Amino acid sequence: MLVVEFAAAFVIILVLGYIVPAGRYYYCYHVRRGPENDGLRIQSRRPRPGQVWEEIRLSLGSIVIIAGVAMLLVEMYRAGWTSLYWPLTAYPLWYFPLSVFLCAVVHDTFFYWSHRFMHWRPVFPYFHLGHDHFVTPTP
Question: Which residues contact 136 (CB under 8 A, 6 or more apart)?
Fold first, then answer.
């Protein structure tokens, strides 16, 4: 059952968090490229051969990690180590926007410090070099 749930989380994250936004970007700026889009490019350099496939491989690895964290949270919920605040009417009306704001602050803080950690010289080659290796942005 856990494998099926992990696969479902992986597919949801893959489709909604990667394929849809990256596909839209790719379509708008590479397939339907016209003179109006050339002015939007950050740089004139094109991706090197094989870069897009290498980035896709790294992204799939990241999605595996994200799906694993999602499953960890699901298992924590099942074990009673955390809770979901549902229904929304169970708490005062002001609690929902406050919790969304606090979650965004906690997430951004975590992202900032984990990114700083990944740039620390002893761990950089193992955790982040693949990401910073690419100079030309692609979806």
Answer: 43, 45, 46, 47, 48, 51
CB 29 within 8 A of CB 37: yes
Question: How far apart, in whole angstroms, are the C-alpha atoms of residue 22 and residue 29?
Answer: 10
Provide the residue type at 55 as one letter: E
DSSP letter string, 8-59: HHHHHHHIIIIIHHHHHHHIIIIIS--HHHHTT-S-SPPPPTTHHHHHHHHH
Q: Count CB atoms within 10 A of the CB of residue 91.
A: 13
Least confident of 20-29, 64-73, 74-83: 20-29
- Residue 131 has, within 13 A of its CA and on its CB side, a CA count of 11
**Distance (Å, whole) CA 52 – CA 97:** 38
pTM for the full model?
0.72
pLDDT score of 133: 77
